[in-house]
Amino acid sequence: MIFCLADKKDALQIAQIHKNEIDKGFLSSLDIIFLGNFYGALIESKFSFCIVAKEDDRIVGFISGVFDLDKFYRYFLKNYFFQSVVLLCKKVFNISYIKKILETLLYPVKEKNLPPAELLTMAVLKQFQGQGIAGKMFFEFLGEMKKRDIKTFKVLVGEELKSAIAFYEKNGFTFLKNTTIHNRKSSRIYLYDIK
Ligand SMILES: CC(C)(COP(=O)(O)OP(=O)(O)OC[C@H]1O[C@@H](n2cnc3c(N)ncnc32)[C@H](O)[C@@H]1OP(=O)(O)O)[C@@H](O)C(=O)NCCC(=O)NCCS
């Protein structure tokens, strides 16, 4: 198994793993091409990165991070949003859908006093879970954060994602507070201090 920075061509495979393994979240409800564009932007922009675990060239897990969430969203809107908007057209006239997009984009504004860096998403294919893969990806993740001299980052995790909550608590994250986005869906915010 190898752990490395993702390449742009990995974006769609990563999006597929996201859709399969984080099936309850808002991002998972997006069209696969849109989600692929989102990961393409994460891989490409200088404000973000994505690490993958590969077995024989097949991606079995990933972890993504941003050094500055606000700057990343601006990069995404500038470079990808309008080319992706056609994909949203079917849903875009649905008010609750627009609300969810705005909530996702505005959450950094709403939660003002948080560090700009964030662990954005992480997933391992079900058949590969429980083998320490996320732990190894997280080690590489910390390396990338350190290279950018990041001292603290946050993660927002849905209350229903029990395996992820267990992972963060096992790996030294500190619970900060509860928050609600997406129609009062409860989420937790954790912080991680890099020693
Ligand atoms: C969270 C997730 C990425 C962990 O991946 P993983 O490769 O199975 O994790 P690891 O094997 O490295 O586990 C490390 C530690 O995390 C904790 N952990 C991971 N999965 C757990 C689970 N299902 N239940 C309880 N604890 C768990 C354990 O403490 C584990 O250490 P241990 O095995 O020594 O007890 C994986 O379960 C997953 O993809 N979940 C669905 C997607 C998700 O919720 N993503 C987070 C949203 S951003």
UniProtKB/TrEMBL annotation:
<dbReference type="GO" id="GO:0016747">
    <property type="term" value="F:acyltransferase activity, transferring groups other than amino-acyl groups"/>
</dbReference>
<dbReference type="Pfam" id="PF13508">
    <property type="entry name" value="Acetyltransf_7"/>
</dbReference>
<dbReference type="InterPro" id="IPR000182">
    <property type="entry name" value="GNAT_dom"/>
</dbReference>
<feature type="domain" description="N-acetyltransferase">
    <location>
        <begin position="1"/>
        <end position="195"/>
    </location>
</feature>
<dbReference type="InterPro" id="IPR016181">
    <property type="entry name" value="Acyl_CoA_acyltransferase"/>
</dbReference>
<protein>
    <recommendedName>
        <fullName>N-acetyltransferase domain-containing protein</fullName>
    </recommendedName>
</protein>
